[in-house]
Amino acid sequence: MTIRKAERNEVTLLANFQRALDNYNYSTLGLRDLFYGLNPGDQGAYESMMRNYVADENNVFYIAEEETETQPVGFALLILEPNKFGDNRLYALLDFIFVDPDFQRKGVGQAIFNTIVAELKILGAVGLSSQVFENNQISLNFHEKNGFRIIATSHELYKPLT
Question: What is the DSSP track for 32-84?
């Protein structure tokens, strides 16, 4: 397995993965209204969103590729947060890790996570935070196994305006 940083021109690939993640959250976790007004069938809207993400140099996408597969099997978004607290130190937010359901529990997520942590250590980051939906027990277990601890519980709220 290879873990690599996504290239800025891989917008379509990233959009496809984001749609898969949204569909997973919707169907498996029962989470509704996560599309923020995006129609899951609207590839153009997802590509536009990804173009905005990749335009920000603090957003780093990681892609997991398996030699036997034609498509990547996992991806993650890391958001670098330099000087977040005005202390000239680097923090980071692991916005998400998503692994194709056919490849879950096969070390893909762990490989992505280990790559991210290794690179953050090289950069001298002082902390890594993450946000997990409270009903996503698989992700909560993964984070706990990797040394995260719950420091707060919050609710993400959304109101459609159309």
Answer: -S-STT--TT-HHHHHHHHHHHHHSTTEEEEEEE-TT-SS--EEEEEEEEETT
> Residue 141 corresponds to which tokens in the numbers above?
């277990």
Structure token digits, residue 23: 């569909």
Domain spanning 2-145, CATH architecture: 3-Layer(aba) Sandwich (3.40)
CA neighbours closer than 13 Å in the CB half-sphere of residue 64: 23
Domains of the chain by residue range: 2-145
Q: CB of 35 within 8 A of CB of 94?
A: no
Report pLDDT digits (tens) over 61-82.
999 999 888 889 999 999 999 9
More confident residue, 1 or 160: 1
- Determine the 3-state secondary structure of 99 from DSSP: strand
CA 92 – CA 78 distance, rounded (Å): 7
What tens digit of pLDDT does each residue of 3-47 get? 999 998 998 888 888 887 777 766 666 655 555 566 667 778 888
